[in-house]
Design brief:
Layout (H helix, E strand, L loop, with lengths): L2 H6 L9 H12 L5 E8 L2 E12 L2 E2 L6 E2 L4 H14 L9 H4 L7 E3 L8 E3 L6 H6 L11 H10 L29 H13 L3 H13 L10 H5 L5 E3 L5 E3 L20 E2 L1 H12 L3 E2 L2 E2 L3 H7 L31 E3 L4 E3 L12 E4 L4 E6 L4 E6 L2 E2 L4 H18 L1
Pfam families: Beta-lactamase
Organism: Paroceanicella profunda
Protein name: Beta-lactamase family protein
């Protein structure tokens, strides 16, 4: 029985939402995605959830399916820092090196031809720069100079879980540009340095437990491992096949990088997003003041904008252009839309995704949040992004 047929048999399910179930089934049946779990909610509660396809052979995807959410961890790490800021313990303008002295060792690559030409940074990166991807750090997936430096130096990637991987060179002077990078990993370390607890313990005690995120974790146990979805890769002919890439968060790392460390489910992450729709509060539990939450969702990078970047590692990611033609800034939490998208999210909406194509958006104006999760590489795969847009448009047509 398909997802749509099963839900059609449920008389309590609102009839107008059953078209969402049918849409998910169609996405799987036409071969664009292997499986998907999606959910919608507002500040008052979960509105709808659905799933289609098999997360593994003979195992249906569902609300309990565990996903490697990877870069969707960044919003959680930013929330940890905001909790400390709310308590007066973290100042966003503090230079990173004052809390984490090793950051002062990072130098700027002078050009993208000869990676050995490096110089000291002309500006100091702040904690705000870490949260907004304006610190100078850049992932090697979209920056050839950084990638060449890693290859020449033998330095591990920042996603390796090794502390040595933190010492990337900077791609630009802090505060002068936006470029997607590993600032969230340093931000998580700053939270630990200020608070005294490890970042995993901090997140568990200050975010997961208060918000009831019972299926979100830094490590898999026997139960969650059995519910983990398979990862598939898009072939050149558009079909899906086995992925040879291992992009899983490293187990038992030297440090948990808040840029990529988490596993979660669609219902759990929706609860996290609903806290943001509630401006720091979920179901009567407040973890951030309303003022802090509202400020965090504002544009935090001034006149800088997120500009498209070409991929230099196509097996893992497509070009970095998540919303073609849309002006994008960045909040303390995630990327931010700077214009109304007809039939879709409003100005000031936050959004991002993980490398295996788990995606979310958060629209305070419409009081609507959505999650759309599968496990397919490359990141921003065209088929997945088409399906995500279809899901979002259908959601707004039914909700607004």
């Amino acid at each position: 029985m398909s997802n749509a047929e099963a839900n059609a048999a449920d008389p309590t399910r609102p009839r107008n939402l059953k078209s969402l179930d049918a849409a998910l089934d169609a996405m799987v049946s036409n071969g664009s995605i292997p499986y998907v779990v999606a959910a919608l909610g507002n500040s008052a509660g979960q509105i709808w959830s659905g799933a289609a396809g098999e997360r593994a052979s003979g195992m249906a995807a569902g609300g309990d399916t565990i996903f490697r959410i990877v870069s969707m961890s960044k919003a959680v790490g930013a929330t940890a820092a905001l909790i400390l800021a709310d308590r007066g313990r973290l100042n966003w303008e503090t230079p990173v090196e004052e809390i984490l002295p090793d950051f002062a060792r990072l130098v700027v690559i002078e050009n993208d031809v000869e990676t050995q030409l490096r110089r000291p940074a002309r500006t100091k990166a702040t904690l705000r720069n870490l949260a907004t991807h304006t610190s100078g750090l850049a992932y090697e997936f979209w920056d050839g100079a950084v990638g060449r430096y890693l290859a020449e130096s033998g330095m591990p990637s920042i996603v390796s879980g090794q502390r040595a991987g933190l010492l990337y060179p900077l791609a630009f002077d802090p505060g002068t540009a936006w470029q997607y990078g590993g600032g969230a990993d340093w931000l998580g370390l700053a939270v630990s340095a200020i608070d005294g607890r490890s970042i995993d313990r901090f997140c568990i005690e200050e975010i997961f437990e208060p918000l009831g995120l019972t299926s979100t974790s830094f490590e898999l146990n026997a139960t969650s491992a059995a519910l983990l979805g398979d990862v598939l890769a898009r072939k050149e002919n558009g079909e899906l096949g086995s992925s040879v890439l291992n992009l899983d968060p490293p187990a038992s790392p030297e440090f948990y990088g808040m840029g990529h460390a988490l596993y979660s489910t669609a219902p759990d992450y929706l609860r996290f997003l609903r806290m943001w729709l509630g401006m720091g509060s979920l179901d009567g539990v407040r973890i951030l003041s309303e003022a802090t939450a509202r400020d965090a969702l504002r544009n935090q990078i001034g006149t800088l904008r997120i500009e498209p970047r070409s991929t230099v590692f196509a097996p893992a990611t497509s070009d970095l252009d998540p919303m073609p033609g849309v002006e994008l800034s960045h909040s303390l939490v995630a990327a931010r839309t700077e214009r109304q998208m007809p039939g879709r999210r409003a100005v000031g909406s936050a959004f991002w995704g993980g490398v295996m194509n788990t995606h979310f958006w958060l629209d305070p104006t419409a009081d609507l949040a959505g999650v759309f999760m599968t496990q397919v590489v490359p990141f921003l795969d065209g088929y997945v992004m088409r399906d995500l847009e279809e899901f979002e448009r259908l959601s707004y047509s039914l909700m607004i």
